Amino acid sequence: MTDLTHPAETDLALYAGGDLPWFRQWRTERHVHRCSRCQQSAAEYSELRATPSVVSGLNWNRMASEMKANIRLGLAAGECVGGRLAPRNVVSGSRLILAGGLLSALVAVGAWISRPNLHPVATSRITSGTVLEASESGIQVRGMRQTLRIMTPATTRNVVYTVGAQSELQARSLDPATGNVAIVHVYGE
Questions:
Q1: CA nearest 11: which of 56, 36, 45, 34?
Q2: Is residue 28 part of a domain?
Q3: Is residue 18 part of a domain?
Q4: Cβ burial 137-160 (10 Å sphere, 16+ → b, else e)
Q5: pTM of the model
Q6: Considering the domain boundaries, does residue 62 fall inside one?
Q7: How many domains does the chain have?
Q8: What's the pLDDT tens digit per position in 95-134?
């Protein structure tokens, strides 16, 4: 559309021949049915298409042979460069290995970041090889080769730790979402 009210002349000509894309054809047809000026232009284009045009002085046989030669030349040129324009295999073996390695690294970093943050807040030694520790994420008992962790949910607040003289550790916390108070009391012998 050239202005806000009438379609472009090229659109009217293509509309008369039925050569517009479907949406522009529909839009132009709606306009032509309401506008007498555009109806007249579309009718004139339709008449021009219907009347055979006679051009004198043209050698039609020569023009047809030139067109065939151009088509053959274009097809031959397309075959020459066809190998270079063929689509490549986008996912090659090295790219697949690289993507797998990057995905593995991403998973490893995510696991490392989401591990519990155990910076001891309070510590109580039960024996020479066993230790009770309290951190922001919970209480843990570490032995020679084993560890027991009692984790507090991430939403808990106001965790209070108490270390007793007789190898005991206690954590009290409040979960604001539920209002529950959790008390974890660990004794060591």
A1: 45
A2: yes
A3: yes
A4: bbbbbbeeeeeeeeebeeebeebe
A5: 0.30
A6: no
A7: 2
A8: 888 888 999 999 988 887 776 555 555 555 555 667 777 7
Tokens standing for 21? 């894309």
Burial class (CB in 10 A: 0-12, 13-18, 19+), 184: middle
Q: Which residues lie across from 133 on neighbouring strands?
A: 123, 140
Is 158 within a domain?
A: yes
| Residue 89 token pair | 């295999």
CA distance 31 to 147: 80
Between the alpha carbon of residue 83 and those of residues 49, 80, 148, 180, the distances in Å are 42, 7, 64, 71
- Give the residue numbers spanning the domain of 30: 9-50
Q: Coil, strand or helix: which one is 182?
A: strand
Phi, psi angles (nearest 5°) of residue 45: -65, -35
Q: What is the pLDDT of residue 143?
A: 74
Under DSSP, is residue 106 helix (H, G, I), strand (E, B) or coil?
helix
